[in-house]
Amino acid sequence: MPKKKSIHFEVSERKILLRTVDLLVVFLGVSALSFYFDFEYIEVSLENIGHLILLGIYVAVFGTIFELYDLQKASQLDTTFKNIVITASTVLLFYLLTPVLAPYLPVERLQIVYLYLVLIISILLWRIFYINLIESPRFYKRVLLVGEISNIDGLVKALNTSDPNYKIVGFINSEASSLESVKYNGLPEFEAKYFLETIKKKKFLKF
């Protein structure tokens, strides 16, 4: 029987996923607002396609500026919530102040508050789902480091900075072992002579 492949998203795939679903949930939130409440400021329809495109552009642009698509920050709920609030506030401000392309201000100003809450809640709910599913340990890429003991700490920091979904689970010291060899206590060490066996057994990505 063929072995099951581990499931994971590449860095670029996760960024595209975040951007795409952010826009999708915003439009779904606006649509639900129009359907369940007497909300008329902006409706999801072909007649309002220009208004919706403008809203989507603002969400994508300001989401990028305020680091909603920084993968390391997107994996932390507290940081994500703060960035969502800042992004939603800026999006709404620019949307209200954009002439011609944005819809006219509603007579009932409370509808602006509804739109603001929908922007925050819709993106936040999706990001909670993302953090608990996509960022869960079963999607981590497990890594076995191979190198000199003096370089291990730098490699660990570099990988954790570049992509938080790398899970470094051990290392193999490429230096000749001796009684005076320096030990690295941050990770378990595997013996070099069992290199291939370790790779096959643990299904590591090696660096």
Descriptive account of the structure:
By secondary structure, the protein is mainly alpha-helical. It folds into two domains: 11-133, no CATH class; 140-206, NAD(P)-binding Rossmann-like Domain (Rossmann fold, 3-Layer(aba) Sandwich). It has helices spanning 11-36, 49-65, 71-74, 77-97, 110-133, 149-162, 195-202; strands spanning 141-147, 166-173, 205-206. The longest helix is centred in the N-terminal third of the chain and has 26 residues, at 11-36. It is elongated. 22% of the residues are buried.
Main traits of this protein?
207 residues, mainly alpha, Rossmann fold, 2 domains, 3-stranded parallel β-sheet, 3 strands, disordered N terminus
Helical stretch tally: 7
| E-strand count | 3
Q: What is the typical, i.e. mean, pLDDT?
A: 79
Helix content: 55-70%
Transmembrane segments: 16-37, 49-69, 81-101, 113-133
Protein name: Bacterial sugar transferase
Keywords: Membrane, Transferase, Transmembrane, Transmembrane helix
GO molecular function, one term: transferase activity
What would you say about this model in short?
The chain is mainly alpha-helical and 207 residues long. It has helices spanning 11-36, 49-65, 71-74, 77-97, 110-133, 149-162, 195-202; strands at 141-147, 166-173, 205-206.
